[in-house]
Amino acid sequence: MDIVMEHKLSLFQLCDSNFPTGAFSHSYGLESYIQENKVHNQETFSEWLRVYLNEQLIYSDGLACHLVYQALEEEDLQKVWKLDRLLTVQNLPRETREGTQRMGERMLNLVESLYDDPILSIYRKRIGAKQSFGHPAIVFTMIAHYLKVSKAETTLFYLYSVVSSLVQNAVRAIPLGQTAGQKIIHQIQGDLAKAATTIGQLDEEDFGLVSPGLELSQMMHERINIRIFMS
Amino acid sequence: MGDWTGALNLEVEDRKGKTVAKKVYFQGAFKVMRPIYHDESGQACYYLLNPGGGYLDGDRYQMKISLAEKAKLTLTTQSATKVYKTPNNFAYQEAEISLQPGSYLEYLPDPLIAYQNAKYKQKNVIRMDKTATFLYSDIVTPGWSPDGERFSYQTVQLLNEIYVDNELVVYDHIRLNPATQNMKGLGFMEGFSHLGSMIVVGKQTNSSLLDQLYSAIDMNSDDYKLGLSLLAVPGLIIRVLAHSTQVIEKLFSELHRMVSQEWFNTEPSFLRKY
């Protein structure tokens, strides 16, 4: 197998919804919609997923992948740390902010046992010293860059990993059938490719945009009584 | 970038327990009235005015507000900010706010009304000492159009950047884009028309304040939807979706009252405007 393919395969490992980062315990506000019965089947979940992708994810994690990759290409680590902070402080609902931070740390520890990219330990030390927060999109991009996977593919694969975890969560929580879940993942692939293209055309001015309802659902999740997700 | 339609520079300081202006400068279509002292606390209140009556195509407004140590200031507007249609360039307003140790700023502008085909961007940058306190609110209405259609503006984009001791701690970025977004759809306005945001940053904030606010608010009301969350630094953010400005104002004044009571053992003043 040629080295490029091998490297892509290595990145696929991180996209697997079984990769233990803790993504299975976060719904990013989806659970609020489920409890209000606004998301209750394949159709309503697909609608939520598209809005989440296009009105929040591309401007936060997605744009971060793109910008972090650029910064790594330019060996501008200060920029990476700046984006780590920006990603964290634009995430205003406490549960999603803290949950994402924990996922970032967990993912970082895991990939450090797989790869000896020196930047990983720099990132971990910064987090330990409370100079950085930790974010899965940044860890993912560090590995993708290390594996020399292209910038556009990095963004696309990251979006896929988030979306496939969310679908698995929805299958458990709504609940949906496994076939319905796979249909959703199949149908959203065109949207993911489009989102990755859009991200390539965004600039830093667009960072952190979010639509009000999504964010509100993430804040309201804090006071949901019976919950299966941490956000 | 120095070409402002209106510019305002206000510096205040504490003189023997009373907050007074050290420097007031304005030019173009932006001004402030003489300060009002609503009570004996020494806290000054300035009303911002837009003598032009509203923002027009390509208008650019800049505000620089600075509070010296222990100064206490309320900053508000005299009436709603109206943004008329902007066929070519968006209207823009930016505020640079500096809060020195122990100072306190309440920045409580009136609602924003974006007219049909208006594009508006607003950027507030707050640089504060960790011992300063900042309280902010804003309300975005569904705008105005001759035939009464809601959300007929093109875009409203609001950015709040807050730095505490030179570190970015809040990046609040909202854009409503009825030209391309389905405002009635899931994830946007959730069937409501008005959006309110309130941000409080101050070292006194803790989770018991949050609990207190939660317990004072009816979270099951059909009149609004409200979310509250603690920030990455001591402080909190509140977002409200509602059907009217009045509902949001009522909630915010109650929350403001509770925060003032908890932190300073004071009651906020009623801001007379008419």
As a percent range, the share of helical residues of chain A equals: 55-70%
Distance between the termini of chain A: 41 Å
Shape field of chain B: globular
User: What share of residues of chain B is helical?
Assistant: 10-25%
Pattern of helices and strands of chain A:
HHHHHHHHHHEH
Radius of gyration of chain A (CA) equals 17 Å
- Strand order of the main beta sheet of chain B, please? 3-4-6-9-12-15-17-16
Order of helices and strands of chain B, N to C?
Answer: EEEEEEEEEEEEEEEHEEH
Unreliable sequence segments of chain A: none
Report how far apart the termini of chain B are: 35 Å
Protein architecture, described:
The complex is a heterodimer of chains A (231) and B (274). In chain A, helix 7 (136-146) packs across helix 8, helix 8 (151-173) runs antiparallel to helix 9 (178-187) and helix 8 (151-173) crosses helix 10 (189-201). The longest helix of chain A has 32 residues, at 42-73. Chain A has a single domain, classed as Urease accessory protein UreF. Chain A has eleven helices and one strand, in the order H-H-H-H-H-H-H-H-H-H-E-H. With 231 residues, chain A is mainly alpha-helical. Chain A has helices at residues 3-15, 30-35, 42-73, 77-89, 94-112, 118-128, 136-146, 151-173, 178-187, 189-201, 212-220, and one strand at residues 209-210. The model of chain A has no long low-confidence stretch (mean pLDDT 96). Chain B has 274 residues and is mainly β. Chain B is 11% helix and 45% strand. In chain B, a hairpin with a 4-residue loop joins strand 16 (224-230) and strand 17. Chain A binds chain B through residues 33, 38-39, 44, 47-48, 51-52, 55, 59, 85-86, 88-90, 92-95, 97, 207-220, 222-223, and chain B through 167-176, 181, 185-190, 195, 214, 219, 225-232, 237, 239, 241. Chain A: Required for maturation of urease via the functional incorporation of the urease nickel metallocenter. Chain A: It comes from Neobacillus novalis. Chain A: This is Urease accessory protein UreF.
